[in-house]
Design goal:
single chain; alpha+beta; Aminopeptidase; 9 strands; globular
């Protein structure tokens, strides 16, 4: 069970640490406006799962966090909330990905692994579209504060069961999934038909953290802020 004081303590520490180096963070609920901002930052496009061109997002179904420094937006990340009930996550991913990436003559995604954690369903928060503005590449620690703050914001906004993301193979191997707070990391979860859609690959990992693991992590960090 989440402890609100732990979340407040950890979130406050992340905001304070970022503020000390001249970084502020802004939450934006307007996905169309967020898309314009990311384009101005140099991001070439968004995946359908987090694009306002394919979804009708409301304040209750998703948001963006933007990092700002030196008067410019330097990083952005998005999240959406879905209650998938007790549907198998593999079935849900295949169904939604085929709709997001339609092909006339073949299935876009061939299969999705069943090697997922027990009870991997329910209230799901999906993270994606993390982008750093060219020229603003910062330290891993700065990005960690930003992403842990995102985890805190998700946990305070929704009664989540799981938070998850799809990450590139090279990024997971460089340790970024751990840096962002994901305790479960599974490689090669989806098998795509060729040619694969832009931004997708059969080498992608599914990374996740359960509500119970997140609560433990936040309790630990609240007692030991230097661990952040």
């Amino acid at each position: 069970m989440k402890n609100s004081l732990d979340l407040i303590t950890v979130g406050g520490e992340c905001l304070g640490a970022l503020g000390e180096i001249g970084v502020s963070v802004e939450m934006i609920n307007d996905f169309a406006y967020a898309k314009e901002l990311t384009e101005e930052m140099g991001k070439p496009g968004l995946t359908p799962k987090l694009s306002s061109d394919f979804n009708d997002f409301t304040e209750e179904s998703g948001f963006w966090l933007f990092m700002q420094e030196d008067g410019e937006y330097s990083a952005s990340v998005s999240v959406r909330f879905d209650n998938i009930g007790r549907e198998k996550m593999g079935d849900y991913m295949i169904r939604t990905m085929r709709r997001h990436y339609p092909q006339q003559r073949r299935d876009t995604i061939l299969d999705f692994t069943e090697a997922l954690p027990p009870n991997f369903h329910g209230n799901m928060a999906y993270i994606g579209e993390l982008f750093m503005r060219p020229g603003f590449r910062g330290s891993r620690q700065k990005l960690r504060y930003f992403m842990i703050l995102l985890q805190v914001t998700i946990a305070t906004k929704w009664p989540i069961d799981w938070t998850y993301a799809m990450m590139r193979d090279r990024d997971v191997k460089l340790g970024f999934a751990t840096n962002y707070g994901f305790s479960i990391q599974i490689p090669g979860v989806a098998r795509w038909s060729e040619p694969t859609p832009p931004g997708r690959a059969s080498s992608e990992w599914l990374v996740a953290v359960s509500q119970d693991n997140l609560s433990h992590m936040m309790a630990h960090y609240a007692r030991s802020l230097e661990s952040l």
